[in-house]
Structure prediction request, 147 residues.
Amino acid sequence: MDRRRFLAGTAAIIVLPFGTASATPEAMAEAIRKVVGSAAVTEGRVKLDMPPLIENGNTVPLVVSVESPMTAADHVKAIHVFNEKNPQPNVFSARLSPLSGKATVGTRIKLGDSQKIVAIAETSDGRFWSASADVIVTLAACLEEST
Prediction:
């Protein structure tokens, strides 16, 4: 057996058992429940800024900002972002403190399909605030063919 056949066979053994799992709206709801527990999630105070129409799902800009004075007594402890159709429903979680200055997190994410994105902010008083956005992806991430 040569090296190429061995590596190809090993890759097939590793990849086949996992399949192509995909998050669902139900999986997203379960992931949110694991973060917030039985606490109520209220819409407001959170702004989710991302384009509604995305030409290429490989690099989607996303900014989450939360209205907060960011003082020791009143601040955002964490920002969580979820999606309903990527392989995993948890996109990311960012931990913050009063030293963060502003409750704003920006990044780029991959999106495999048109879907709903949900951002949830956890505040120092134990409350959860949210915003959501429906986005349309015309060219899904990870599905492009190389040329």
